[in-house]
Amino acid sequence: GSTVFQTVIGLLYALPLNQSIKLKAFTRTIVYLPVIISPLIMGYIWYFFFAYQGGALNDLLIFLGFEPINALGNASFNPWIIVLVNTYQFVGIAMIIYLAGLQSISKDYYEAAVIDGASAFAQFKKITLPLLA
Predict the structure, then answer these.
(1) Where are the alpha helices (DSSP H) in 1-106?
(2) Which of 44, 68, 83, 132 has the fewest CB atoms found within 10 Å of its own CB?
(3) How many other β-carbons are positioned within 10 Å of the β-carbon of residue 133?
(4) Quick check: 95 and 65 in contact, CB under 8 A?
């Protein structure tokens, strides 16, 4: 389940990071940072986020005027929590792979597409996706 999310979100991160934007290196580092954190440590971090007593999620819900929820004790929430945590931790790997692929695509293709009047979506659909595949 989380592989689909990691793939899509990783590509969505990689596309703007392939352009010349400010704070590119900083953003790459922040997105990739959870990958190098031990899964055990990541588990503790997310446990304290979802904990019923004193968890950040319930503190936020109480602040907004809602009732606290027992996310970790609810069997219907648990698979989604696992998908969220796994996606958050490993989306950086997909981003790096897509970024490497995007950087290997020659800019000549995009320049020719601009001259031909192709939109950004058409360039993505006709150049980026096929060459990444």
Answers:
(1) 2-18, 24-36, 39-50, 56-63, 78-103
(2) 44
(3) 6
(4) no
- Please name the residue that has the structure tokens 């490993």: 90
What confidence score (pLDDT) does residue 61 get? Answer: 95
- pLDDT at position 96 is 95
Write out pLDDT tens, residues 90-128: 999 999 999 999 999 999 999 999 999 999 999 999 999
Residue ranges per domain, the chain? 2-37+77-132
**Which value, in Å, is the radius of gyration of the alpha carbons in the chain?**
19
Token pair for 76: 């219907």
Q: Could you tell me which residues come within 8 angstroms of residue 99 by beta carbon, excluding any fewer than 6 positions away?
A: 14, 17, 18, 28
DSSP states of 99-118: HHHHHTS-HHHHHHHHHTT-
User: In one letter, which amino acid is 31?
Assistant: V
CATH hierarchy code of domain 2-37+77-132 = 1.10.3720.10
The angle subtended at Cα 84 by Cα 40 and Cα 102, nearest 5°, is 100
